[in-house]
Amino acid sequence: QSALTQPASVSGSPGQSITISCTGTSSDVGGYNYVSWYQQHPGKAPKFMIYDVSNRPSGVSNRFSGSKSGNTASLTISGLQAEDEADYYCSSYTSSSTVVFGGGTKLTVL
Amino acid sequence: EVQLVESGGGLVQPGESLRLSCAASGFTFSSYWMHWVRQAPGKGPVWVSRINSDGSSTSYADSVKGRFTISRDNAKNTLYLQMNSLRAEDTAVYYCARGIGYRLPDWGQGTLVTVSS
Asked: Do B104 and A98 touch (CB under 8 A)?
């Protein structure tokens, strides 16, 4: 199972919005609405930010939103803040009843 | 509060075995699927394995199938990962995660496994 494809890096200024893409296939992202997004700060465990494409767990800021079109899911962060600087990973359920993660995107807040 | 505490990591030589444990608290352990995810230094997470709530069903990534075994003891609120025939490419931080199906809302802090001669 190949990793989902994410851009290696994105950047934005405080207050701006950014979008991170996550591209898979019809056997994972495109086939199921089971895409999740995780935020990871250096030396920390990943934090659950979005599930089932567009749902936010309680406690996650509404500045984070998710969507999907075809085989590509997206995470949008609006009103960028310095604390949003982190690595972001998408994941998806697959037709093999496994989970596949993306390679990760490093977000830099300028 | 959900707490997951991994242990058992360390330095081993190629071909050796290691058993990881994950002690769970703050939730009804026996009601949830559990997963192992690993992350090599500087790389993204990679899903390793999952087990259903009563331990009757398991699933593995192709890269570890036949070498790793996931299990659980619901009486002890503990998840395990038996890792045999370890390879250099198994070097990673290993996280256990509480699963809601294939969603992973809660993760431990991880335990480092280093496979090197």
From this structure: no
